[in-house]
């Protein structure tokens, strides 16, 4: 008797090209956004998402059928996809949209894009798990994953710090960071997971893997191919510098420090 | 499909333009932990009040907690009504079980124009899920807002790029229900008011059969100190604290002397000196206490995003060039292991 065919997992990892986290950003003179002529890299939370997908395959071996990365953005976003491929994704999808420096689509449009793309996948390639970063470090909204789960009606586990998958049972056991502690959930597949910083330590892509990534397939599509239009619902009126905080200088000793604290009305309780 | 949607949206916009102005009616998702109303939710209430219309609160949970909470909540200043719904499914709330309730409350016939909550881990999980179902955006971590009744639009400001820029966005009339979460440090918490008595409305829970997600357990880090998110004083430690033992031994006496909550930088959390729940920063908690003491913290962008709205910032660091000194009101260049015990002693005298 032949063993029943093993369940196979298809993972989708959405990634975003964002201004590098170490860059000190500057608001542009027109107050329409920030100066984007700076170093960009993959959103740090998305790196963790890619890493988690790759680690799942390392743990579950052949149970993971595919890891696909997807991004929406200008031609340069391809670099971000190549990074994901070099880290271990098998294939990538580039939804080409906008010019360098232009605003990306709103999270709801992003979620609709992923949903539309997923619905186009053939039987056998249907996505069972989407792993996203918990937020992009540029807009700091942190809503895309939840919106996607809502649109799909899937189970969701946000701010994940630990993920275990039982492919046979079609379940994921997720520990998530919540205010004041943590929470454990049992999610049925298909599931949307968003990553907390503590989930893992992303690997660096090795040079051979970077070379190999150049040969991996990248499918390029447009929002129109998916029947989507990215007209924003919200109007961005302006972007400004936050009020500057000026340091008050230094003191020379603990006594002076205590004095300053007392001046501010702060004493021991 | 898309075309029909655009047409619908246009129609909505047009009909609104001709109709008389719609007064705002906010639904505040009032959170609690074991029957105690979260301070963040009280700030959300204040923000909702600033819209200038009716404010309703929604309380969900197990039957016992909800009964007690309703009695407290109806006395809150600014509330016009308290909606409550209890179900065993809401005891350990999950987005998958809570969102159907919110969706039914926000169905076409409802008068709600805004959905407001604190920027808590639960609300952050639930609200966007519901917003997507209603095909509307969700605005996160709002620091100020104003509503224009004549155009039925709401304008929000919110920090972006880890607080290094402030964006002003307008949610126009074409968005029938405006979802937003509130940065609690930007709004003072709503108070109880003698004599105010909001109307109490029971809402039937929406039972979810065989939910796709199951809650297994919650682990809350225990502490005798004030809660980090609402403390008026915070003492925070960084990587320079060396290890978990010295973190405790150095910071806790000072925190106790000041009656302060303990916080930590991401470096200290990642190195295992302090629990995750103590992290202050873009990816952790955002605090704005009266006093923030940063000990052995260099002041990376991501950390500053979580504390730079504090009233008085005090920094102690060995490195005179540490970026934290650029924002600190009082800086002391010194070895913290030497000066912190001295500081504790001198504060107490």
Automatic annotation (TrEMBL), chain A:
<dbReference type="GO" id="GO:0005759">
    <property type="term" value="C:mitochondrial matrix"/>
</dbReference>
<dbReference type="Pfam" id="PF01012">
    <property type="entry name" value="ETF"/>
</dbReference>
<dbReference type="GO" id="GO:0009063">
    <property type="term" value="P:amino acid catabolic process"/>
</dbReference>
<comment type="function">
    <text>The electron transfer flavoprotein serves as a specific electron acceptor for several dehydrogenases, including five acyl-CoA dehydrogenases, glutaryl-CoA and sarcosine dehydrogenase. It transfers the electrons to the main mitochondrial respiratory chain via ETF-ubiquinone oxidoreductase (ETF dehydrogenase).</text>
</comment>
<dbReference type="InterPro" id="IPR000049">
    <property type="entry name" value="ET-Flavoprotein_bsu_CS"/>
</dbReference>
<dbReference type="InterPro" id="IPR033948">
    <property type="entry name" value="ETF_beta_N"/>
</dbReference>
<comment type="subunit">
    <text>Heterodimer of an alpha and a beta subunit.</text>
</comment>
<dbReference type="GO" id="GO:0009055">
    <property type="term" value="F:electron transfer activity"/>
</dbReference>
<keyword id="KW-0496">Mitochondrion</keyword>
<dbReference type="InterPro" id="IPR014730">
    <property type="entry name" value="ETF_a/b_N"/>
</dbReference>
<keyword id="KW-0813">Transport</keyword>
<dbReference type="GO" id="GO:0033539">
    <property type="term" value="P:fatty acid beta-oxidation using acyl-CoA dehydrogenase"/>
</dbReference>
<feature type="domain" description="Electron transfer flavoprotein alpha/beta-subunit N-terminal">
    <location>
        <begin position="30"/>
        <end position="230"/>
    </location>
</feature>
<keyword id="KW-0249">Electron transport</keyword>
<dbReference type="InterPro" id="IPR014729">
    <property type="entry name" value="Rossmann-like_a/b/a_fold"/>
</dbReference>
<dbReference type="InterPro" id="IPR012255">
    <property type="entry name" value="ETF_b"/>
</dbReference>
<protein>
    <recommendedName>
        <fullName>Probable electron transfer flavoprotein subunit beta</fullName>
    </recommendedName>
</protein>
<comment type="similarity">
    <text>Belongs to the ETF beta-subunit/FixA family.</text>
</comment>
From TrEMBL, chain B:
<feature type="binding site">
    <location>
        <begin position="265"/>
        <end position="266"/>
    </location>
    <ligand>
        <name>FAD</name>
    </ligand>
</feature>
<dbReference type="GO" id="GO:0005759">
    <property type="term" value="C:mitochondrial matrix"/>
</dbReference>
<feature type="domain" description="Electron transfer flavoprotein alpha/beta-subunit N-terminal">
    <location>
        <begin position="26"/>
        <end position="224"/>
    </location>
</feature>
<dbReference type="GO" id="GO:0009055">
    <property type="term" value="F:electron transfer activity"/>
</dbReference>
<dbReference type="InterPro" id="IPR033947">
    <property type="entry name" value="ETF_alpha_N"/>
</dbReference>
<feature type="binding site">
    <location>
        <position position="317"/>
    </location>
    <ligand>
        <name>FAD</name>
    </ligand>
</feature>
<keyword id="KW-0249">Electron transport</keyword>
<dbReference type="InterPro" id="IPR001308">
    <property type="entry name" value="ETF_a/FixB"/>
</dbReference>
<comment type="subunit">
    <text>Heterodimer of an alpha and a beta subunit.</text>
</comment>
<feature type="binding site">
    <location>
        <begin position="279"/>
        <end position="283"/>
    </location>
    <ligand>
        <name>FAD</name>
    </ligand>
</feature>
<keyword id="KW-0813">Transport</keyword>
<dbReference type="InterPro" id="IPR014729">
    <property type="entry name" value="Rossmann-like_a/b/a_fold"/>
</dbReference>
<dbReference type="InterPro" id="IPR014731">
    <property type="entry name" value="ETF_asu_C"/>
</dbReference>
<feature type="binding site">
    <location>
        <begin position="296"/>
        <end position="303"/>
    </location>
    <ligand>
        <name>FAD</name>
    </ligand>
</feature>
<comment type="function">
    <text>The electron transfer flavoprotein serves as a specific electron acceptor for several dehydrogenases, including five acyl-CoA dehydrogenases, glutaryl-CoA and sarcosine dehydrogenase. It transfers the electrons to the main mitochondrial respiratory chain via ETF-ubiquinone oxidoreductase (ETF dehydrogenase).</text>
</comment>
<dbReference type="GO" id="GO:0050660">
    <property type="term" value="F:flavin adenine dinucleotide binding"/>
</dbReference>
<dbReference type="Pfam" id="PF01012">
    <property type="entry name" value="ETF"/>
</dbReference>
<dbReference type="GO" id="GO:0033539">
    <property type="term" value="P:fatty acid beta-oxidation using acyl-CoA dehydrogenase"/>
</dbReference>
<comment type="similarity">
    <text>Belongs to the ETF alpha-subunit/FixB family.</text>
</comment>
<dbReference type="Pfam" id="PF00766">
    <property type="entry name" value="ETF_alpha"/>
</dbReference>
<feature type="binding site">
    <location>
        <position position="239"/>
    </location>
    <ligand>
        <name>FAD</name>
    </ligand>
</feature>
<keyword id="KW-0274">FAD</keyword>
